[in-house]
Amino acid sequence: MAVTLSMPPSFAAKWFTRRMARLLTQHPEIELHLNATTALVDFERESVDLSIRYFNGQAPNLDASLLFKDEARVYCSPEYAKALNLDVPEDLGHATLLLTTIHPLWPQWLSQFSLLDERTIAAIPRIHFDQSMMAIEAAKLGQGVVMASPLLAAGELADGTLIEPFGHYLPLSNAYYVVHHSKLPLRPAAMLVKQWLIDEARQ
Question: What confidence tens digit (pLDDT) does each residue in 56-67 have?
Answer without folding.
Answer: 999 989 999 999
